[in-house]
Amino acid sequence: QVQLVESGGGLVQPGGSLRLSCAASESIFNFMHMDWYRQAPGKQREFVATITGGGTTNYADSVKGRFTISRDSAKNTVYLQMNSLLPEDTAVYYCHARVSVAGESWGQGTQVTVSS
Description:
This protein is mainly β and 116 residues long.
């Protein structure tokens, strides 16, 4: 099973930026899609952004225009660039890979805290 390791989380002031990384233990070239989800305290995990194997992206309405998902297949890594961060973006961010119809993996999560 592919291993996913997130990094890049931390504490940032409102209006600031962070870039999250998700490094996979094997080639992501043929993955169906890779996604970012987040879970705030007391809330359900929610979809944030996705990028397909063909490079098509999609975003939750709450992050459109502020977040950008991208990937570097040579580095087996997916990124989430987060700009204009808001306190309500505070959550644990998880990387998810849909490797195949029957196969998927989740990372362990990275904490993002937006606070002054």
